[in-house]
Amino acid sequence: MKNIVIYGAPAAGKGSICEKLVEKYKYNHISTGNLFRNLDDSTEFNRKIHETIAKGNLVDDETTSKLVQNHLETLDNNPIVLDGFPRNLNQAKILDTFFDNYIVINIEVSEMVALERALGRVTCSKCGKIYNKYSESMKPLKEGICDVCGGDLVGRSDDNEESFKTRYNIYMNNVESLLNYYSEKNLLFIINSDQKSPNEIFEEIEKVIK
Ligand SMILES: [Zn+2]
Hints:
This protein has 210 residues and is of the alpha/beta class. The chain contains eight helices and eight strands.
């Protein structure tokens, strides 16, 4: 199995792909969001990061990269999926100094489809199961009711059209230079998720990581 750096726009389906990689192929899923959240206070390095975040400042690229590098050194030999890192060209160049032998996967989704997915997403208020009222393969049998437990299905409050479009466009602008960088290095695989179910997307991923 190949090491992966994964990108995907909001609602592209990146989260469920990472879950499947961990479940089926025992990938080490490295999300910088999680690394920052789960940081202990055991070293001066960690304490400095805590201070920076507590002050509301951004952690600089060198420190973020060092955090990832430190974490990679603690891992077993299972393959790695990096998620949320590198976030910019500078981080990508630093990553290349300590991590090699990887491919880059970008899960593409058009703005229209992403919007539909995000706004159609509903969650069972009792058991947490996720549905999508606009997706044939993910909609509940009876509108507004959970198939499993009969609980009420509710939408996410932050998923309105305006805020979603803003998130989507910020993401697309930020990722462009990274995708160019990896495309020039011949490391980039693009998978379009518009007309595909999560399982179909995963089957395409399996073809490129083996
Ligand atoms: Zn339920």
